Amino acid sequence: MPQVFGTNSVLHLLPATGASVDLTSDLTSITLRWDRANPDTTTFGTTNTVKRIAGLRDYVLDFAGIFNTGVSASGFSSALACAMGASENTLFKFAPAGCVAGCPFYTGCGMVGNMTITTTPTAMVGLSFTLQAGAGSLSASTV
């Protein structure tokens, strides 16, 4: 697959209490981290190499953007603030290379872990969220 430019990325959220929200136009960064805790099973009889078994998977989706009052009235800040307050799972669909056939596509159902609004006198108001694994695992496929 050829290299792609970051502006092609697409992120959609579907909070339990609302309609699908396309966050792409107001985002400035998206980070998806997928981890696995592989416990050490090394014993005294093991020689030269640590032994591990496959452990539990986890993922975190961090995204940040510009606080847009037009979007926040019906979109991502109000929808996710509501999801955080209600401790609800939020479905996300993330296409880092855009919605082009054959490109990677990730889906998961996470809970809002934090919401941060950043404001300074000389910059745009920023808004960031973190979704943490909530129900089920992260799915990787192609568009």
Give the SSE map.
Blueprint: E1 10-15, E2 21-22, E3 27-37, E4 56-66, H1 69-74, H2 76-86, E5 89-95, E6 104-118, E7 126-133, E8 139-142
Antiparallel strand pairs: 1-2, 1-5, 3-4, 4-7, 5-6, 6-7, 6-8
Radius of gyration: 18 Å
Gap from first CA to last CA:
13 Å
Instruction: Report the sheet-strand fraction.
Output: 35-45%
Q: What's the architecture, going by CATH? A: Roll
Instruction: Name the average pLDDT.
Output: 83
Overall structural domain count: 1
* Main pleated-sheet profile: 8 strands, antiparallel
Question: What are the low-pLDDT stretches, counting only 5+ consecutive residues below 50?
Answer: none
Shape: globular
Reported by name, the CATH topology is: Pnp Oxidase, Chain A
Number of strands: 8
**Which structural class do the helices and strands define?**
mainly beta
Q: Which CATH class? A: Mainly Beta
Helix content: 10-25%
Number of helices: 2
Q: Please trace the helix and strand order, writing H or E for each element.
A: EEEEHHEEEE
In short:
This protein is mainly beta and 143 residues long. The chain is built from two helices and eight strands; from the N terminus they run E-E-E-E-H-H-E-E-E-E.
Overview of this protein structure:
It is a single chain. The chain has helices spanning 69-74, 76-86, and strands at 10-15, 21-22, 27-37, 56-66, 89-95, 104-118, 126-133, 139-142. It is mainly β and 143 residues long. Strands 1, 2, 3, 4, 5, 6, 7 and 8 form an eight-stranded antiparallel sheet that branches. Strand 6 and strand 7 form a beta hairpin. It is globular and about 65 Å long. The mean pLDDT is 83.
